[in-house]
Amino acid sequence: MRHFLISALFLSLVAGCSSVNIGPHRIDVQQGNALDQENVARLKPGLSRSQVRFLLGTPLVVDPFRTDRWDYVYLYYKAGRLAEQKRITLFFEGDTLVRMEG
To answer: Which helix (H) or strand (E) holds 15?
Structure first.
């Protein structure tokens, strides 16, 4: 009986030390401007900067050396991996939207 208890205790200790491949929990992460397709479809040359800002929000990237270009970037990470990426670049002349890429 004593031998059985010692064996059971030993097996319990060994089982507790076994490795279980459980990785760290990774949350979903959204970065940048969530680009709504309906609002992106409303963009057209001739809109003012304030109208564009109203539709899409403040751009994620504004180059201080090229103020005529606004970059809107959206990244979505699911479980630590890039699941979705959207990018649109807008070009202005003065206060007027002239061209879009992306």
So the answer is: helix 2-16
- Return the pLDDT at 18: 60
Q: Which CATH architecture has domain 27-101?
A: 2-Layer Sandwich (3.30)
Buried/exposed 83-96: b ≥16 CB within 10 Å, e otherwise: eeebbbebebeeee
What is d(CA 21, CA 69) in angstroms, rounded to the nearest whole number?
Answer: 47
Domain ranges of the chain: 27-101
**65-80: per-residue pLDDT in tens?**
888 999 999 889 998 8
pLDDT of residue 15: 65
Residue numbers in the chain where pLDDT is lower than 70: 8, 11-21
Q: State in Å, rounded, how far the first CA of the chain is from the last one.
A: 75
